[in-house]
Amino acid sequence: MKLILEEHFDNLNNWNFEYGFVRNHEDQYYVDRNIKLENGITIYGKKEKIENSNYDRNSQDWRKNRRFGYYTSTSINTKGHFDFKYGMMEVKARIPISIGAWPAIWLMGSEEEYPYCDEVDIMEMYLWQNQPTILGNFMYYGNQQCNWNTKMIAANYFKEKDNNWENQFHIWKLDWNNQYMRIYLDDELINQIEIAKFKNGNFHKNYYILLNLAIGGHGALPEEGELPLKYEIEYVKVYQKEEDYNG
Does the pTM of the predicted model rise above 0.85? Predict the structure, then answer.
């Protein structure tokens, strides 16, 4: 396979920042300063009061009618710089296993707006049923609704194998061809979906990469002793077979 992306984050020239309140009624306000470039990147989730630059007290949009945010973080993506269709994607990361943390590695379609663009969550981690939980998800739009194929595994499943698990870097991988998508964590299969059956283009399109650390959004906020949250990403790599490579 051909290595078409090898990102060690010497700079962020191929990445865009998101700003403000963005999605899921999350509590963080995205800024571009909560990121450090050193041995990859570290995204920080901090508790701090920040004024919403889009504030409109008369708006019905939750993104605008909040005058202040009380947490900040960073979200980056490759839209307009890099996308791909089929191949192998690997991300080496160390994630915060903390109440209120919501780190993610995910993909969205480059050409369509949500939810028509599909979504692939190679990694999410958040509190579910009072347990830190790791997820691998596939979302596609069909029959006028969002359809989810979700796998949830309690973080304790991994910590019972290695009580130092949360302090280590791990490799998340997406294996993707015109027949299936499979998500792995340290070579253990987390979730999969057979995409050959989709006739309307779902999961057969170009996707761009998103990396972010959200906060809250599931009714839980970080405890004081856990802050600042740290989400460390050493590298992102994407490989493709020669016949799938478009240059």
Answer: yes
